[in-house]
Write a structure and sequence with these properties.
binds beta-L-arabinofuranose; about 5% helix; 1 helix; globular; 4-stranded antiparallel beta sheet; mainly beta; about 300 residues
């Protein structure tokens, strides 16, 4: 009877979305996308899942750059950054984001296990073009556990440059969202680390952008109101100021076929997109994820419609 009950429970809880976006590549497994438009090209910066089939942990050592001029076909430009580019780092090339600095260079903010003081840290690499080459910009972490007020887990940086040139970074996990201003140099912080308010059910993977004067923060949430246990949806909040307070607006992406969920939202050639990952590629899984892209639509009042996971 116990076995039947367990099987029934699995059937009830193991419900996958009927539709899931197609991978940008099936040559490798990719995860944790960040998006950047430069000229007529959309760049995606992704993590690289290398766990074996049936693996039960992340194996992530480098990050790839993908480029596209139509948001449909993506070219893998290769592993343009690796934990070996950070002399102080040892493992876990987790989520990252690239932002163009005031000096015209490209700053790649990364989550890295330092294997030293602090478990996860945020590092920064810099390159002269969107595809690099990239080198460590600091020689140590930008944020580590020793940073006053830093998050319970220093991962998943999202960096946003406002119209007035001020730069902000949000990051965090395990319900610990943090934010801080960055210098124009992108390699040091200004003022104190703060805990933004109003971001309901934040779990991890923040992504910040601005549209029509409104600040948006999308993020993975794993509450029972939007996902089954162990999975995450993407919720979002809006604000009138870059550091909040934020007002929760709802779910923009339902749970996907991987346990983790990770948004990047971008406008490219007049169309908005949601870039995210799932487990839909052949042989895919929670530690063998694939980045995908779907169209995103705004309502007239600035709210976002829930993304339809097309399967492509
Ligand atoms: O890919 C490793 C971690 O899983 C990321 O840092 C999180 O956002 C989650 O996707």
């Amino acid at each position: 009877a116990a076995a039947i009950a367990a099987a029934l429970l699995l059937l009830i809880t193991d419900v996958r979305p009927a539709l899931a976006g197609a991978p940008i590549t099936t040559a490798i497994y990719t995860a944790d996308p960040a998006a950047l438009v430069v000229g007529d090209t959309l760049y995606l910066y992704t993590g690289h899942d290398e766990a074996p089939a049936g693996g039960t942990n992340f194996v992530m050592r480098d990050w790839h750059v993908f480029s596209s001029t139509d948001a449909a076909t993506f070219t893998d430009q290769g592993a343009k950054l690796s934990i070996s580019n950070f002399s102080w780092a040892g493992a876990d090339a987790w989520a990252s984001e690239v932002e163009r600095g005031a000096d015209g260079r490209y700053y790649w903010f990364t989550s890295i296990n330092g294997n030293g003081p602090g478990w996860m840290n945020i590092g920064v690499a810099v390159g002269n073009s969107p595809t690099g080459p990239f080198t460590d910009a600091i020689g140590g972490p930008l944020i580590s556990d020793s940073t006053p007020g830093s998050s319970p887990l220093n991962i998943d940086p999202t960096v946003f440059t406002d119209d007035d040139g001020q730069v902000y970074m949000y990051w965090g996990s395990y319900y610990g969202l943090r934010a801080v201003r960055l210098n124009a140099s992108m390699t040091s912080t200004v003022g104190s680390v703060v805990t933004p308010s109003g971001v309901s059910n934040f779990w991890e993977a923040p992504w910040m952008f601005k549209r029509n004067g409104v600040y948006y923060l999308a993020y993975a949430a794993n509450d029972s109101g939007c996902s089954q246990p162990g999975y995450a949806c993407v919720r979002y909040a809006t604000a009138g100021n870059p550091l909040g307070p934020w007002t929760h607006r709802g779910v923009v992406l339902d749970q996907v076929s991987s346990t983790t969920n990770h948004p990047a939202i971008i406008e490219f050639k007049g169309q908005w997109y949601m870039v995210y990952h799932n487990a839909a590629a052949p042989g895919g899984g929670n530690f063998r994820r694939s980045v995908t892209i779907d169209k995103l639509t705004f309502n007239a009042d600035g709210t976002m419609q829930k993304v339809v996971q097309t399967g492509g």
